[in-house]
Amino acid sequence: MRFAGLLVPLALAGAVACAATCVRGGPKASLMAQIAGGTFAMGSVAQDANDNEKPVHQVTVADFWLDRTEVTVGAFADCVHAGKCSEPEAYTAERGNFRVFCNWRHPEGRASHPVNCVDYHQATAYCAWTGKRLPTEEEWEYAARAGNEGRKFPWGNDEPTAARLNACDESCAKNLVAQRFPGVKPMYPGSDGWVETSPVGSFPAGASKHGVLDLAGNVWEWTSSLYATYDGTVSEPKRVLRGGSWGGGDARTERTTNRFRLDPSSRAQFLGFRCAK
After folding, report:
1. What are the C-alpha distances in Å from 108 to residues 91, 113, 168, 182?
2. Helix or strand holding residue 171 (H, E)
3. Which of 37, 56, 208, 223 is 20 to 30 Å from 96 by CA-CA measure?
4. pLDDT tops 70 at residue 4
5. pTM (2 decimals)?
């Protein structure tokens, strides 16, 4: 039985106006951006780059499609109802429990917010159900950087502001403390309008060159890639995530080259995904 607040059309995820580069006529065309492949310099030698972003190396990706928004609670509910996806961790009104931030079964509904508190396997199952897959780490960075333009952030090289993404503002920082989680320093002055996650596509000023939204902030996004250092000396049985989240107070986490990895069974309030094809 489906529950109240989660029955919304899959199209809600793409309710924002289509950018100029949103190509119609392909797979789920109104919800996906077509990205022409090419060769780009992956990684960073910037002063604020982490060691696992080095060395910079040339990577070639083929043409692909990428969801314009992160997968919503409402869309994921359809997969659960179809019996193809297991339920994410559900909201629990308990301070100090990460589930207090989970959007699944949240009393506010949050059908248009990104589904969070999901692991890699759940993300993979959803994408497969829709005839898609998770993007590779290389595809994700290529899309976020506008290929060989080498953007520092999806929108360009200007620093994050409350108009460009949903990261942690002052109200977010206070809420984390109130819920008995470590506080963070707000990423930017002013309010981005959301204490936790925001409805997908709420920040058109932060769109990538191809019209992909929320590539910075809202939720960290699972990729299909196993983690390894770029020089090949270290590998781990973990999956790479990209993009930063609503709880981030450090602008470095929102950079297009920043890498994060977790055990594929990890579920947390900051974890979500989008699909590729």
Report:
1. 10, 10, 20, 24
2. helix 170-178
3. 223
4. no
5. 0.90
